[in-house]
Amino acid sequence: MNIHEHQAKALLKDYGAPVAAGVAIFSADEAEAAARSLPGPLYVVKSQIHAGGRGKGKFKELSPDAKGGVRLAKSVEDVVANAREMLGNTLVTKQTGPAGKQVNRLYIEDGADIARELYCSLLVDRGTGRVSFVVSTEGGMDIEAVAAETPDKIVTVDIDPDKGVTDADVAEISSALKLEGDAANDAKSLFPILYKAFTEKDMSLLEVNPLIVMDDGHLRVLDAKVSFDNNAAFRHEDIAQLRDLTEEDAKEIEASKHDLSYVALDGNIGCMVNGAGLAMATMDIIKLYGAEPANFLDVGGGASKEKVTAAFKIITADPNVEGILVNIFGGIMRCDVIAEGVIAAVKEVGLKVPLVVRLEGTRVKEGKAILDQSGLNVISADDLDDAAQKIVAAVKG
Ligand code: ADP
Ligand code: MG
């Protein structure tokens, strides 16, 4: 789960991290009061969407010369004017994809006098099985470009979970970031704070880009992006409150209600599969035959008829879906249950696109018989290869 910058900053502030004063607003009418509550004379109006690259982003509805999704403002009036221009419009950044994201809230923040922009993130390093700090002096801009062009400017420091962030770790990170004086002193508290927040809140990513050294020599968290590990969500009800459903795909929200592992994609072949590995293989083979999957979907091992029905409904509700491939290997899952679920769903929502079904395993005969007797126009397939070719042909034909 992701949260907005202003929420991430509030959380880090609770842990004692240095962040600027700011106010989140949902309508332009709130902009003036928000700005007046800040010291000024420099303000920043920041689009709150679950994607980075906002500063360099462009609003779809505005002229290409208009300013991006993070704007400096030099007066209260300027804050209000920018808020009016930004709210409700669609921001397209490197991370949103061409469709962009609607800006439904803004963060009005105290402007900082920036001396240096640094990069600092924490993530779970699968290689070492530890939390790592990944830092660079080249912050504020595209860290992917830094990684590609000057990888030596990125330094990784992994943290021993038994010891936490030691003085030696802080020294190593600070030296990589060339911190001196007050900044180096601030670092002694900031890096342990970031680590504490990361581990206590079960984050999977905490990215501060930029972490800045201000003109006065002190550090400040200027941007914050946080993702949480969904598997630990049950321990953090306070964090569940921060979820913003307007940022999520409606189909994925529906799927999560039914405990289905579903990820919306851009293609036109809807997939219903059991097992994540088989789901990945199914997507691969669809691509091999020249088409694109519309989704990843693992209905799970012991899915009920209701769950299968829900899954089928989610797939058919996607307007991009021009064909459906059901690929089930019945181990724990029974093929007759799948067949009944498919039929129940088709009865409810209809079937307007070709449907290829490949069933194998437990109760496969019964499952196939149920489909045959249903009168549905089901194209049956014998194996994965056959199934993929048939659905691709049906969609292209
Ligand atoms: P994004 O990464 O989505 O583009 P950031 O929050 O990193 O958004 O903002 C982009 C840039 O805007 C920063 O690199 C910084 O130069 C500037 N900026 C952001 N917040 C402030 C602030 N409070 N004061 C001054 N400049 C800021
Ligand atoms: Mg940033």
From TrEMBL:
Enzyme class: ligase
Gene Ontology CC, one term: cytosol
A UniProt-annotated Pfam family: Ligase_CoA
Enzyme Commission code(s) on record: 6.2.1.5
Domain ATP-grasp: 9-254
InterPro entries documented for this protein: ATP-grasp, ATP-grasp_succ-CoA_synth-type, ATP_grasp_subdomain_1, Succ-CoA_synthase_bsu_CS, SUCC_ACL_C, Succ_CoA_ligase-like_bsu, Succinyl-CoA_synth-like
Keyword list, A-Z: ATP-binding, Ligase, Magnesium, Metal-binding, Nucleotide-binding, Tricarboxylic acid cycle
Statement: the UniProt record of this protein carries the keyword Phosphoprotein: no
Cofactor: Mg(2+)
Domain of life: Bacteria
Any one Gene Ontology BP term: succinyl-CoA metabolic process
Reactions performed catalytically: (S)-malate + ATP + CoA = (S)-malyl-CoA + ADP + phosphate; GTP + succinate + CoA = succinyl-CoA + GDP + phosphate; succinate + ATP + CoA = succinyl-CoA + ADP + phosphate
Known pathway: Carbohydrate metabolism; tricarboxylic acid cycle; succinate from succinyl-CoA (ligase route): step 1/1; One-carbon metabolism; formaldehyde assimilation via serine pathway
Stated name of the protein: Succinate--CoA ligase [ADP-forming] subunit beta
Protein's organism: Devosia geojensis
